Amino acid sequence: MKALLPFIILLAACSGNEEPNTQLALSICINEFMADNDSTLSIQGEFPDWIELYNSTDEAVVLDGWTISDDQANPNKHRFRGGLMVPAHEGVVLFADKRTDLGDNHLPFSLDVDGEWIILTTPNGRSTTIQYGPLIGDVTASRTSDCCDEADCWTYLFAGSPGETNSTAEMKTEILMETGGLWLVYDKGQAPAGGWTLPEYDDSDWWSGRAPLGYGDAHIETEVSYGPNSNNKYITTYFRSTFEMGEPDILDDIFVEGLFDDGAAVYINGSEVARSNLPNGIIGYDTLASDTASGNSETTYQSFMLEQSVMDGLLVDGTNTIAVEVHQAGSSSSDQGMDVGVTGQRLTPPPANQSGTNTYKPKIEEVSGLTDPSSFLFTRDKIHQIDLFIPSASWASLDANPYEYHVYQLSIKPNAGDL
After folding, report:
1. Top-tier CATH class for 177-347
2. Most exposed: 43, 267, 388, 407, by fewest CB within 10 Å?
3. Nearest to residue 236, comparing CAs of 107, 330, 316?
């Protein structure tokens, strides 16, 4: 059986005096994607399919109102509404893992390694539609440069460069635990029973909430208790969570990213790995933070790289427990805050040839500027009529006279053995 190479019919509204333009570029492009992530980009111990969006403009773009889909008949399968922002000349990675409960960068579908559609649509209805052919595990379809739109600007890359500019990247980041995750909370005005930082500790009487946790500031997602007296608040609050990882020995560096107001100590599997704004030595429930966090420091995430000596023998293949105690600088403090994420980095081999290009190009067909991607269909029917959808005046200034409406019929007669 011969494989049918996918393609898409490119049509556009056109003036009688001008050539059609099917590449009306959006401010955001689909820059790179992996349809079968076996062992490259990891998040919480899983290896989801992923899509990278890139902002080629000089201004940040908030994706609220944009949609993305893998279904041409339902281009609005996932609508962004959580304030996800793509900074100017940077990218964001979307995880196609069917885990929308984890945030706006998690999509309700996965990608088909045998080929399918990816459709990105703006709030005013313009879209970029990509149809791709078969891929293989741990290989991306990537633009050779960010948001390029020239012919043959797509290539295969091993592991890809998610969240980075599209060029050869040697260091890969794996998200082991996202910030803004769920945590167990102990806010009872005293220290929990001994061993509370250990994986085997019984935390069944702790309650759960999503970070950032604390009180007194607008960025706090879940409020914790400071006790019955606002002038004599609890000094220390305790938190526990877990993250999954596989084969910790393959990681070169581990980073703990934390937001702490006022001071904090962080533990992994019972061992302290980071301390912020706390005195040296043994600390307890009544230990005060060294200073008060204020202004930008209340929302700034600090980064702690774990030493190799700390990593060896500490992290396990499977479930790891992370625990945090947050201390106030005083009992009359007006606010508190805590959020933590964990990332790992490892060196990966470069693409098959050092220039970042390969002899074999992925079969990618792309159309930008469409207002109805479902109008553009290709089927195996012998005759299929494709009607052109002309954009409304709100999308572009169109006068009736200079524009023509075209209806095309495509007659297909397959050779024997092609179907």
Report:
1. mainly beta
2. 407
3. 330
